[in-house]
Fold LacI family transcriptional regulator.
Amino acid sequence: MATIHDVAKKAGVSVTTVSRVLNNRGYISEKTRNNVFRTMEELNYQPNELARSLLRKQSNLIGLIIPNVSHPFFSELASYVEYYAYQQNSKVLLCNSHMDPVKEKEYIEMLKRNRVDGIIMGSHTLEVDEYRNLNSPIVTIDRQIDENIPFISSDNYRGGQLATELLIQKGCRKIAHICGNLKLNMLANQRTQAFEELTGRHNIEHVTIQTDMNVFDQKQYEHIIHTLLQEHPDVDGIFSTSDIIAAFAIKECVRAGKRIPEDVRIIGYDDVNAANWIVPEITTVKQPIEEIGRLAIELIRKQLEDESFERQNILPVKLIERATT
C-alpha cells in the first residue's frame, strides 16, 4: 500500500507539499497540485483520514442526530445540512435515533470515537445530559438544553398565532389542535400555547389532542383524527403541528363525508415539499428549513474557530394559504 512518502518521491516534491495539497493549506501552484493528484491516482494512494484529522485537529466530519429520517421535515433538513456542510469541505454522519435514548447514546459515542468536529442535535428524546458533557461544538434544533449551547428554532409562538388567527378569521367556531406530546420539552410546544391563549381570548370552543411519546409514529395519526371526528363531529377547524398530520386530517375528513374547506378548514405546519403535492393543497405555517440547516453549519464553524455567535437563534415563520382554508 502506497504511503505519503511514496507519493512525494514519485511526484518529485516534499512530503510537506503533498500534505498541503491534501489539506488545501498554503499556496500550491496548479501545476504542482495536478502533479500530486495524478501521482496519488497512479499509486492508488488513500489518505488516512484519522491520521489527517489528528494532525490538523479537525476531522471535517459533522454528526447529525435526528429522530426519523423518513419524516419530510427531517429529510429536508438533513439535505440542507449536508449541502452547507459540503460547501465548508465537511461531510455529514447521519444518525437516525428513532426516539430511542439508548440508540441515541450509542450514536453519540460513535461520533466521539470518530472525532467529529461538531454535533447537530435534532433529536426529541428526554435524555439530554449526554450532550452537556461533550467536548465538541454542538447545536440543537428546536430545543434549548443548556444556556451555553446554541439552539435554532423557528418562531413557534408566532406560528401558532398565525394558524389560529386564520381559522378564527375564516369563521371557525370549534377548533381542534393536534400536537406532539407536551411532556417532551420542545420549543414547538409554544405553538400549542399560542393556540390555547388565542382561542381562549376569543371565546372559541377548542380541543387539544396530543400524540403519544413517539410523536413521529404516523400509524397513530389516523386513529387520533378518526376518534376526534367521532367525538367532536361539529369541529370545523383543525390546526395540526405538522403537514403530515394535516394530510391525515384531510384523509379522515373525506372518509367522514366532510368537505374541505367548506365543512372543515385545515392548517398544517412546516411547509414541507409534500404540502403542495396533496389535493387539496395544504395551508401551512412555513418554517425556514433551508436557513435552519445553513445556520446549524455556521454555528458549528464559529465554535470551531472561536468566533462569537448567538446562542438563541429564533427565525421568522410565514403563513402560506392554500386550498384547505
Summary: The chain has a mean pLDDT of 90.
